[in-house]
Inverse folding.
């Protein structure tokens, strides 16, 4: 059984046609007008049928377009998920690579003092064995013993110095890995805290007649890690003492703090400056211009890790050879909670 | 009577009625914000020209999309042309669409249903942009 949506209209047309037939006898003068009316209604009825079809097709097209849109949106979302996964993988492998570089650097740095200590110990062992043989043969003379003592004194001094050097290096390596969870978090006033830290650096500063001026408004109050701030300032000052004023002249360093959130801290010296070729590398681990003179190449790397990690901020370095260097630190007044964001690690 | 030309917009078609030549063209997409105020003047101009002249007529319809009220406006135009054709004037309507555009081909069938005197044909589209001029059917 088929249904007709326009059955009523068709019945009206049939009815009108019958009416016209009946009218032909009763009032033939009306027939023509009525015929025109019926034709107009018939046309309108067909228009209506067409428009319904047009509308239905347009709706179908719209539905198809929406489906296509939905499909493409899903595709785009899937692509985005894949992209994020790929990004995570890249970030992870980047971290592994930098960990690998760190391990290689540690191995390289430790290798020298440990190697010296090993060969000294071996030399001492040989000398000791020779002495024992001489004693066993009953042929020990005063000069043999004096020579042995000289060897033992030299080698043990070298072993001790190099083991101490290795221990110092290991101590500084440990600082590279900043354990945020274990460092103390509290609210503290930045200005007074900076002055406290500088007080503890007075012995080093006085030695070279250096001064540090602090320009910090009293307001900034930080919710974060004073230990990290202390380490950062200490490393920046010691780095300046080692590099900026190595020619022995007294220098003036400034610490200027502006803004309360984010806080901007500029540490500037008026020393030798950093060569343009070196500047992009100063925060890299084991980058040092003073290898073999006690520089581990970790001071600024530690600063960088502390600023980016616990402080949740950024650090940049600008320098002009002969006119000094400025480090600009920018960080929020409230440090991110550990594991709060992707900056961890 | 002068020609009537309305450039296409994103929602309204090109209307290019070269009345002196008797060549009329609609092309593009048609879903005006207010169909009555867009098509009203077009229909009026068409009816006035049909009444005032007896040049043979050719209308190219090259729409890629139209909404329901544009469809009603098209039917009104076709009805006016049908009336003129019934009066003995040569009238051709060329409905242009892509060969694989089934919906447009079905529309053509629907729209030609009531045209007994107009010569109605379906043909390939002239160009994709819907704004070029053509010389031959």
């Amino acid at each position: 059984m088929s249904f007709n949506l326009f059955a009523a209209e068709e019945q009206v047309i049939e009815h009108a046609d019958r009416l016209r037939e009946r009218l032909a006898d009763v009032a033939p003068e009306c027939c023509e007008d009525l015929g025109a009316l019926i034709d107009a209604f018939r046309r309108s009825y067909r228009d209506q049928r067409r428009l319904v079809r047009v509308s239905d097709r347009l709706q179908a097209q719209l539905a198809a377009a929406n489906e296509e849109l939905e499909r493409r949106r899903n595709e785009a979302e899937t692509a985005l998920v894949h992209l994020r996964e790929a990004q995570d993988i890249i970030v992870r492998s980047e971290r592994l690579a930098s960990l690998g570089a760190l391990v290689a650097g540690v191995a390289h740095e430790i290798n020298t003092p440990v190697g010296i200590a090993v060969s000294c110990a071996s030399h001492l062992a040989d000398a000791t064995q020779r002495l024992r043989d001489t004693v066993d043969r009953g042929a020990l003379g005063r000069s043999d013993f004096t020579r042995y003592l000289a060897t033992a004194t030299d080698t043990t001094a070298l072993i001790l110095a190099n083991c101490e050097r290795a221990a110092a290096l290991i101590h500084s390596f440990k600082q590279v890995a900043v354990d945020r969870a274990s460092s103390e978090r509290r609210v503290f006033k930045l200005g007074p805290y900076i002055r406290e830290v500088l007080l503890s650096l007075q012995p080093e500063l006085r030695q070279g007649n250096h001064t540090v001026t602090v320009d910090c408004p009293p307001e900034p109050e930080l919710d974060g890690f004073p230990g990290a701030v202390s380490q950062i300032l200490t490393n920046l000052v010691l780095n300046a003492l080692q590099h900026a004023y190595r020619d022995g002249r007294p220098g003036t360093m400034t610490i200027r703090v502006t803004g309360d959130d984010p806080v901007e801290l500029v540490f500037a010296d008026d020393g030798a400056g950093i060569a343009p070729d070196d500047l992009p590398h100063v925060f890299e681990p084991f980058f040092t211009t003073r290898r073999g003179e006690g520089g581990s190449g970790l001071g600024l790397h530690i600063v960088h890790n502390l600023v980016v990690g616990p402080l949740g901020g950024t650090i940049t370095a600008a320098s002009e050879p002969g006119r000094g260097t400025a480090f600009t630190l920018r960080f929020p007044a409230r440090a991110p909670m550990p594991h709060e964001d992707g900056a961890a690690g | 009577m002068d020609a009537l030309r309305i450039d296409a917009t994103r929602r309204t078609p090109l209307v290019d009625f070269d009345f002196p030549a008797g060549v009329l063209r609609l092309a593009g997409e048609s879903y005006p914000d207010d169909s009555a105020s867009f098509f009203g003047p077009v229909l009026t101009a068409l009816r006035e020209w049909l009444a005032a002249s007896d040049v043979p007529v050719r209308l190219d319809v090259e729409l890629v999309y139209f909404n329901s009220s544009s469809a009603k406006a098209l039917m009104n135009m076709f009805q006016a042309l049908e009336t003129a054709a019934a009066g003995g004037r040569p009238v051709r309507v060329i409905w242009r669409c892509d060969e694989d555009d089934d919906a447009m081909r079905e529309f053509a069938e629907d729209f030609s249903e009531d045209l007994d005197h107009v010569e109605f044909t379906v043909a390939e589209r002239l160009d994709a942009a819907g704004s070029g001029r053509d010389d031959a059917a």
The first strand of chain A starts at residue 186 and ends at 189. The interface with chain B takes residues 43, 46-47, 50-51, 53-55, 57-58, 61 of chain A (CB under 8 Å). Chain A is about 60% helix and 10% strand.
